[in-house]
């Protein structure tokens, strides 16, 4: 079974700072990769996804992620965060056409105004 | 437009009193999932339905059951809730066909409190 590791449990930064959240997975085959965001008190929302093609994926709200197959990584980035980006971020991996989505433990991002 | 709807959004029950949580979808997706999410943790898959086929995760307690009477609806039944079952319960749907996969769409969740 695949596993997903998120490097940081809690990240605190100031507005306009750049953000990068690490995500690594353990599965050697074809994968589908996702980043979900959960704002305080709200449900999980899809930020972006990678199925195939260009490994640099652009999502909503200025987020992007890069799939590096050789490193089994799918790191999330945003050049300049806003206070409204305060949320929990989950990386998730689906192996091939498996039914199951494996989540990382999540990273809490706190942006200070 | 709401695509995955969960009712109620908040549910309070007493220790040992059965409770049913509801999920409906307007996406006509063939797969429906139930997750349990505790505070500051990742969602934990309890089980899923692929069409009418029920698939239980190995570590899901027997206390948790599910029903899917039709494509649109799926229910989570907790037969005898314990204090440890207090959590957010998330429903998700997905289209899975011919080896092609799609995104999982999550509902807003039902927050269960057990007194």
Characterization of the model:
The complex is a heterodimer of chains A (about 110) and B (about 120). Chain A is mainly beta and about 110 residues long. Chain A has strands at about 5, 10-15, 20, 25, 30-40, 45-50, 55-60, 65-70, 75-80, 85-95, 100-105, 105-110. In chain A, a hairpin with a 6-residue loop joins strand 5 (about 30-40) and strand 6. Chain A is globular and about 40 Å long. Helices cover about 0% and strands about 50% of the residues of chain B. Chain B has no helices and 11 strands. Chain B is globular. The mean pLDDT of chain B is about 90. Chains A and B meet through strand 5, strand 6 and strand 10 of A and strand 5 and strand 10 of B.
Q: Tell me, what's the shape of chain A?
A: globular
Major beta sheet of chain B, specifics? 7 strands, mixed
Secondary structure: helix percent of chain B: under 10%
Q: Please, what is the oligomeric state?
A: heterodimer
- How many DSSP-defined strands of chain B? 11
Number of strands of chain A: 12
Q: Strand share of the residues of chain B? A: over 45%
Radius of gyration of chain B, in Å, reads 14 Å
- Most extensive interface: pair and counts? A-B, 23 and 22 residues
State the gist of this model.
Chain A has 113 residues and is mainly β.
List keywords for this structure.
heterodimer, A: about 110 residues, mainly beta, six-stranded mixed β-sheet, four-stranded antiparallel β-sheet, about 0% helix, B: about 120 residues, seven-stranded mixed β-sheet, 11 strands, globular
Topology:
The complex is a heterodimer of chains A (113) and B (115).
Chain A: E1 3-6, E2 10-14, E3 19-21, E4 23-26, E5 31-38, E6 45-50, E7 56-58, E8 64-68, E9 73-78, E10 87-95, E11 102-103, E12 107-112
Parallel strand pairs in A: 2-12
Antiparallel strand pairs in A: 1-4, 3-9, 5-6, 5-10, 7-8, 8-9, 10-11, 10-12
Chain B: E1 4-7, E2 10-13, E3 19-25, E4 31-37, E5 44-50, E6 53-56, E7 64-67, E8 73-78, E9 87-94, E10 105-106, E11 110-114
Parallel strand pairs in B: 2-11
Antiparallel strand pairs in B: 1-3, 3-8, 4-5, 4-9, 5-6, 7-8, 9-10, 9-11
């Amino acid at each position: 079974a695949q596993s997903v590791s998120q490097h940081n449990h809690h990240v605190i930064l100031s507005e306009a700072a750049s953000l990068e959240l690490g995500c690594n997975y353990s599965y050697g085959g074809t994968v589908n990769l996702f980043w979900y965001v959960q704002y305080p008190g709200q449900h999980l929302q899809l930020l972006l996804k990678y199925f195939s093609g260009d490994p640099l994926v652009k999502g909503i709200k200025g987020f992007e992620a890069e799939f590096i197959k050789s490193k089994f990584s799918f790191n999330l980035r945003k050049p300049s965060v806003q206070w409204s980006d305060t949320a929990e971020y989950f990386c998730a991996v689906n192996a091939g056409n498996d039914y199951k989505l494996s989540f990382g433990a999540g990273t809490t991002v706190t942006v200070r105004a | 437009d709401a695509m995955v709807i969960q009712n109620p959004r908040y549910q309070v029950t007493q220790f040992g009193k059965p409770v049913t949580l509801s999920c409906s979808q307007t996406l006509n997706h063939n797969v429906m999932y139930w997750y349990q999410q505790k505070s500051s943790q990742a969602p934990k898959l309890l089980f899923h339905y692929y069409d009418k086929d029920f698939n239980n995760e190995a570590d899901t307690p027997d206390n948790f059951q599910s029903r899917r009477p039709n494509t649109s609806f799926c229910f989570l039944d907790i037969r005898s809730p314990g204090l440890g079952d207090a959590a957010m319960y998330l429903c998700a749907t997905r289209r899975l066909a011919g080896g092609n996969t799609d995104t999982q769409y999550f509902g807003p969740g039902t927050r269960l409190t057990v007194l």
